[in-house]
Amino acid sequence: MPHAIPESLQTKIEERLRYYQDLNIRLFYRDRVAHRAAAPETPVASRPEPSPRSAAQEPVLPRPKNMPAAPPAAPAPITSSAALSLFEEKVPGDTLLKIREDLGECTRCKLHKGRNKLVFGDGNPHAQLVFVGEGPGADEDLQGLPFVGRAGKLLTQMIEAMGLQRKDVYICNVVKCRPPENRTPEPDEVQTCSPFLLRQLDVINPKVVVCLGACASKALLQTNRGISQYRGEWQDWRGRKLMATYHPAYLLRNPPAKADVWKDLQKVMAELGLPLPKKKSP
Ligand code: URA
């Protein structure tokens, strides 16, 4: 005799399926066990992440030249395939408008409680280059637009230094609602919101994704490694190139790190075929 599913479990399954339906996800045929086995877990970093928001989470700054290096731990390759397997299938006929409609007046996580405006994303829907930040701050929450506060002004300058304008690129965040007191988004909030980000990235289909800061890098690369360990190195992300670099808010507190970010952005420019600034003669 077939086992009856308890009503409470059935309700939970129905709710979960409705949620996936909201996300336009209908196919669940992938063998995730085998898939996971193929993708090595990345090690938990032993040092703190640079966070755009909290000074307590600064990156470990470059070691002075005369300080001996710690024995290098062989870094596991960053692969993004494991945890994203549910969302690997593209949603046929998806558009940014549809994603925005699916988000609706979102109440899927607790961040909605303090929100003024949901910040979906802004820019060129066909951009070759997408910047992904952490989550809206106070200015963004009021205007409903990403990166319009102080950090946003710096991001705009960075984009212009690349020879581009904001309207040439697309800018969005991992979470679409402002975390209270600008705290780092919590794992459940990232998990709930990131399927929408993945859909945005699939629809825009950029050549390069730049993750601004640890939150975006961790969310997309599914790694706990500290961003300082791999920033500036190209990562393969779902068939695209991903560059993790420091968040502009972090640069506001640590202006010397701007040089690192500029190096990273020049790699992005080279990849996109943008003219590089002429090197100053010695
Ligand atoms: N910081 C972010 O990560 N995103 C924004 O939109 C603004 C500030």
How would you describe the overall organization of this protein?
The structure is a single chain. With 282 residues, the chain is of the alpha/beta class. The chain has helices at 7-22, 32-38, 96-103, 138-143, 150-161, 187-204, 214-221, 248-253, 258-272, and strands at 122-123, 129-133, 170-173, 208-212, 234-237, 240-245. It has a six-stranded mixed sheet, with helices on both faces. Strand 5 (234-237) and strand 6 form a beta hairpin. The longest helix has 18 residues, at 187-204. The radius of gyration is 20 Å and the shape is globular. The structure holds uracil (URA). Uracil binds next to helix 5.
List keywords for this structure.
globular, alpha/beta, 9% strand, 282 residues, 9 helices
How is the main sheet built? 6 strands, mixed
What is the structural class?
alpha/beta
What does the overall shape look like? globular
Number-wise, the strands total: 6
Mean pLDDT: 82
> Count the helices. How many?
9
Distance N to C terminus: 83 Å
Ligands: uracil
What order do the SSEs take from the amino end to the carboxyl end, as H and E? HHHEEHHEHEHEEHH
What quaternary form is this?
single chain
**Helicity level, as a percent range?**
25-40%
Please give the radius of gyration in angstroms.
20 Å
Biggest sheet strand order reads 1-3-2-4-6-5
Please report which band the strand proportion falls in: under 5%, 5-15%, 15-25%, 25-35%, 35-45% or over 45%: 5-15%
Unreliable stretches = 26-49, 54-74, 79-86
